[in-house]
Amino acid sequence: MEQQVRVLPDENGVRVLVCAGDFDAETLGGLKVASTAAIDDPGVRRIVLDVTGVTFADSSMLNVMILLLNTGRLVLAGTVPPQLGRLLDVTQAGQLFTTADTVETARGL
Q: Is 9 exposed, middle or buried (0-12, 13-18, 19+ CB in 10 A)?
């Protein structure tokens, strides 16, 4: 499956990045661009990464997630798919991320 990153319109300083598909070193370009734009925008106080549609993620995606995490503004939204969940478990990174069940809940944090 091809990867896709959709950026939803900002609401109250919250930018939502919706990810779907496979994310690895070769297909990460869209997520990197959207992440950099969110990090660099001073009007964005929270970055919500909706991972519900991620079908594959490797350490390259995890690196982008950690970059977003280091801003202090990241919330993961939605049900973490099994493959991404395994990556987070194996690396013991899962406990680092603030999570919310839905994008709407994440927007309110």
A: exposed
What DSSP designation does 11 have? B
Alpha helices in the chain (DSSP H): 29-40, 59-69, 82-90, 103-107
* Distant-in-sequence, close-in-space partners of 65: CB < 8 Å, separation ≥ 6: 49, 74, 76, 93, 97
In this structure, the number of other CB atoms found within 10 A of the CB of residue 52 comes to 16
Largest CA distance in the chain: 35
Q: Count CA atoms within 13 Å of residue 21 on its CB side.
A: 14
Distances (CA, A) of 1 to 21, 55, 69: 5, 8, 26
Strand order through the sheet with 74-77: 4-7, 14-23, 46-57, 74-77, 99-100
Give Cα separations from 15 to 44, 63, 65, 88 (angstroms): 6, 19, 15, 23
The tens digit of pLDDT for each residue in 9-40 reads 999 999 999 999 999 999 999 999 999 999 99
